[in-house]
Amino acid sequence: MTASSDSFATPGFDLHRPAPRAARKPKRLVAHGHQREDPYYWLNRRQDPAVLAHLQAENAYAEAALQPLAALRQTLYEEMLARIEEDDLSVPVRLGAWMYYSRTESGKAYAIHARKRIDPQAPETWQDSPEELLLDENIEAAGKPFYEVGDFEVSQSGRFLAWAEDTRGNRQYRLKIRDLFSGKTLRLRKTPERCRITSLVWANDDQTLFYTVEDAQTQRSFQLWRHQLGDAEDVLLRTEHDERFSLSLMRTRSNGFLVLSAGSHTTNELRLLPADQPRARWQLFARRRAGIEYEIDHHGERLLVRVNDTGPNFRLVETALDNWQRAAWRELLPHDEEVVIEGVDLWQRWQVLSLRVRGQQRLRVTPLRADGSAAGESHDIGFDEPACSVELEDLPEWDSAILRYEYESLSTPDSVFDYEPLTRRSTLRKQSKVLGGFDASHYRSARIEARAADSTAIPVSIVWRRDTALDGSAPLWLEGYGAYGIATDPWFSSTRLSLLDRGWVFALAHVRGGGELGQRWHDGGRLANKANSFSDFIACAEALADAGYSARGRILASGGSAGGLLLGAVLNQRPELFGAAILEVPFVDVVTTMLDPDLPLTVGEYEEWGNPQRRRDYQRMLAYSPYDQIRAQAYPPMLVEAGLHDSQVMYWEPAKYVARLREHKTDQHPLLFITSLEAGHAGASGRYEQLRERARQLAFAIAALAG
């Protein structure tokens, strides 16, 4: 139940000390005959002691301003920690002769990965087997300021584990291999390619590991390498020269093929290698064609292809293993204007389509015969809540008798279900425990539509406590992203309860540019249509106020990375609409960054934002670039966060943005800028430090909208 108001009394900010002021060192930037002056361009010199001193001064100023909130931050941290089951265990997954799982232990910040052997004579007794430790991230992280595991792959026999680890927060992952039978980590010479791993996959021979690596400068995944156990040198197999395209590896669940994808934001092509022939030639399935995307799965003597060659929502075709020509493709499911085929997964006995029908997720199951043909009618797995998130789990066993999916909503914790297609029965295997008396019935969720400037209906997902008055008095946290065709489906957050239990409302704006309604939704908020993302977010805020969920000036806007771009543009346009804002690693210096092809990931981003080397794109991007469009006006209280080792949004973008805001804004509201000096794009590593960062955000929000 809601705690007493005395428990939630909120002090303000301490803004008595002067805010840091970055030195102005004007630099003239010229493009297409247009001149800009950037006084804070110098902040991109990472090695300059003056830059680090400025970031440290901003950190000290922010912590001093937040000092009156110290008790609240600690209270929030303890609340959030108390909801978490610190000793936790994942739902085990069978692969070969073992059951695999991960667990966490009280007081330890990272996961422990382990397995237990299955007795073939009594498989149900596997839990009685001794535990075999695969990887204890706590041991690997000891003495390191940051630790994160990237790709994690066990070989087919179960003997070898290959993983990639980042110890700086810059998403540069080093290859590690362990012999699980002996427990020894293999000695691998430290070579440049082995320190920039982006994906891993084993061949069936248990000796050959394929991996992709990123370019040291642009951080684009651009090369395919082969490692043979015991060899000192690895073999470079392929280099992708088109800077719009990145490489990644996967294996079909049938264990028939390894798949190499070369993909941009709008186009891709795949190459296949028989998994039992690691020295064979990778074969091109279908050459890249602008705007055409496809994916492949394998079953017996056929390949299943999801492709958007006849429409943006994709269709489903099949082709024989011995004839991949387009003319031989046979259509199984045509393109549908109302249904988006987001993915297709094959098991020996099941085909599962991940669909979106008017934005709502569905899983469609079809039983299969041995030859891969349909053995009966298809059916959908039903879900009750209108705003939810559903994800099919990647059970690796080809002959699995069950399917598994994860389900959550704004008011339902993450839940893992086993589904029996023959009986059409779902069995809850695990629901993330929320300690401290959580009761889902205390909360209400809804999905409404805001009307955009061009009359497009924009979905908004909302959650609140049932005893919160919806009369416009509640503060509201409004989050948005809207880029790359990524769908931001409703998710459960136990940390969010600390807001909801204080009378807040939380809402998620599904603006154009995301993927909630398919490719057309993405296209409606990118390139020349990017301005739609901003007006959609504004429309969502106004609709929520008009419906009584909050009021203008009582809404906190939140977004990270490309969502930070969304917020930066919106705050320049309608700052009075919002009572506060939190921008996490925001992409705000759009034009200057996109004009520099040597920066990480820039060229590949042209398909999302445009290429400012072209005059028309330059003018359009300049018109909304948050850094360039800051002007003399009042802005709401703001918390801006960055990571010094961020390789996706460089720390200097938010640093410059805050410096220019300090120069131009006409209000006395708090503007706090915090740079994590030991992390990158995703913030701190380790669950306890992540909770402390979250407590800081929530304390800022509560203080900014107090009253």
Average pLDDT works out at 94
Going across the major beta sheet, what is the strand order? 32-33-35-34-36-37-38-39
Measured as a percent range, the helix fraction is 10-25%
Counted by DSSP, the helix tally is 12
Rg of Cα set: 26 Å
Which range does the strand content fall in?
25-35%
Q: Please tally the β strands and state the result.
A: 39
Based on CA inertia axes, which overall geometry fits?
A: globular
- Pick out the low-confidence regions: 1-8
Q: Could you tell me how far the N terminus lies from the C terminus, measured between alpha carbons in angstroms?
A: 21 Å
Counting helices, strands and paired strands, the structural category is alpha+beta
> What does the main sheet amount to?
8 strands, mixed
Core attributes:
5-stranded antiparallel sheet; alpha+beta; disordered N terminus; about 700 residues; 39 strands
Describe the structure.
The two termini are 21 Å apart. Helix 2 (70-83) crosses helix 12 (687-704) and helix 6 crosses helix 7 (562-573). By secondary structure, the protein is of the alpha+beta class. The radius of gyration is 26 Å and the shape is globular. The strands form 9 sheets. The chain has an 8-stranded mixed sheet, sandwiched between helices. Strand 38 (638-643), helix 11 (652-664) and strand 39 (671-676) form a beta-alpha-beta unit. It contains 12 helices and 39 strands. It holds the Pfam family Peptidase_S9_N. Residues 491-705 form the Peptidase S9 prolyl oligopeptidase catalytic domain. Residues 1-30 are annotated as: Disordered. This is S9 family peptidase.
